[in-house]
Amino acid sequence: MFEYIFTSVLEVSMAVSFFLFFFLMFMPKRLGKYAPRCRTFLWMIFALRLLFPFQMGFRLTAFRLITPYRLKSDPRPILESAEPGQLISLIQMMAIVWLVGVILFFAIHLIAYGLFERKLLRGTKTSSLSQEEERVIRSQFYEVKYQLGIYDPIRLWISSEASGPMLIGFFQPKVVVPDCMMEEQMLSMVFRHELMHHRRHDAWYRMLMLATASVHWFNPVVHLMTRRATEDLESACDQSVVAGKTADFVGEYAQALLNTAKCLLQRKKVRQTVLVSYFSSSAQRLKKRFMDLFAPIQKRGLTLLSVVFLMVVLGCRFVFVQGNDQNLDWAENLREGDISSVEVSGKQLPQEMSSYAKKDVVDWFSSVNFKPALYRDRNRVEEERFRITKKDGSNKTVSLFSDGTVQVDGKEYRAYGNLLK
User: Fold this and answer.
1) DSSP-assigned states of every residue in 285-345
2) Contact yes or no for 352/401 (Cβ under 8 A)
3) Rounded distance between C-alpha atoms, residue 354 and residue 349, angstroms
4) Are strands 382-390 and 368-372 parallel, antiparallel or unpaired?
5) pLDDT band at 85 (very low <50, low <70, confident <90, very high)
6) Are strands 382-390 and 395-401 parallel, antiparallel or unpaired?
7) What's the longest Cα–Cα distance across the chain?
8) pTM for the full model?
9) How many helices (H) and strands (E) does the chain have?
10) Residue 353: its pLDDT value, please?
11) Which of 31, 169, 217, 280 is most buried when burial is the number of CB atoms within 10 A of its CB?
12) H/E element, 88
């Protein structure tokens, strides 16, 4: 099962990367004509497909990658759990490295986020603002919060360690602002942006992107996608804030972005984490946000999203990664002239039928691809059994079951037809 999951991840990562690279490298200007909210949904479709790589049903194998079985010729077992004469396969070694990478990548980001939150909390005790100034800020926060119709318990932190306004937390969200006094109009804009992040559940969108990057930590194209997704997330939040507002309001909001960017430059550099929503941005990202903020009416992109959905669902079926093993190596290299006899359901075939049976067996093995079976039906029925003996004396027993699984010498597989061979 573990080997099946890893090979499925590889298949989807390779296939989706092809489409991602096309959108990221060749269509950035065209994507700019679509609303930021559309673009966030676009990246979410890619992320969800990358997180759920399992593929059922028919397969159209256009690209097939087979990893070799043996790493050494030494017959002694590499692992204590391995049987003598059987060695761990390359795909199994890769799967172990992949799993360790997933755990480390995700854990490091969560630990960094936890340390960052604790640092902000310590900064609330060293704020340079007076009690009256903090009272004004808190009063403005709750005023904007209730204007937006948000009654969830959201805390406000005024921290000396904050480089700019931000939203942190998942189950206990907090809006964090630096300990520098701002005008009430600017405070209102800041709080509208961060509270809109909460209302849109953007923290969980960021968690989705982190999970995707963790599972596909080996794929640089996926990391480019997650960076682009978080940028578009900020632009989408900007447009949610200014939706239905006057041009003067949009201008004041843009000025608030500039002022917070100045505050960011004046403070010591704080390394940002993917799990935090920031009001302020770097100069390059701020330029993109302004372009989206003052852009003319942009396309909603329903057609684009529908096309992309079909692309990533169906397109992934063209890539097949197979971790080969001794059973499959024996079966897939089978030649008609190598076969001594074929038994069907325990019965030796007569001489006149033997040649046809040998050809059918070889044709069947050469026309299908195998993966370890993820599951098997408890009520399955064995429909047919073959025993194939080669002239060198080696033999394999192949059983075909009603649930589509194939058993080769007791090991479970699922066979997929290679329709594009």
Assistant:
1) HHHHHHHHHS--PPB--HHHHHHHHHHHHHHGGGEEEEE--HHHHHHHT--GGGEEEEEET
2) no
3) 6
4) unpaired
5) very low
6) antiparallel
7) 101
8) 0.79
9) 13, 13
10) 64
11) 280
12) none
Tell me 126's DSSP state.
G
Could you tell me the two tokens for 321?
Answer: 């990664």
Percent of the chain with pLDDT over 90: 25
Q: Nearest Cα to 91, choosing from 13, 8, 214?
A: 8
The pair of three-digit structure tokens given for residue 362, joined into one six-digit string: 């070889």
Q: Using CA atoms, how far apart are residues 175 and 158, in angstroms rounded to an integer?
A: 9
Contact 63, 12 (CB under 8 A): no
**What is residue 175's three-state secondary structure?**
strand
Compute the distance between CA of residue 302 and CA of residue 329 in angstroms, rounded to an integer: 47
How confident is the model over 18-65, as pLDDT tens digits?
A: 889 888 887 777 888 888 899 999 999 999 999 987 765 555 555 555
- Only one residue has tokens 């480390």, namely 104
CA distance 228 to 40: 9
Sign of the torsion angle spanned by Cα atoms 255, 259, 265, 268: negative
Over the stretch 256-280, which tens digit does the pLDDT of each residue have?
887 776 666 665 555 556 677 766 6
pLDDT of 74 reads 43
> Among residues 275, 272, 274, 286, which one has the least CA distance to residue 162?
272
Q: Which two tokens stand for residue 340?
A: 């001594």
C-alpha span between 61 and 110 (Å, rounded): 38
Alpha carbon distance 6, 373 (integer Å): 13
H or E segment to which residue 366 belongs = helix 351-367
Chain position carrying tokens 């030494």? 74
Region 353-369: what's the mean pLDDT? 76
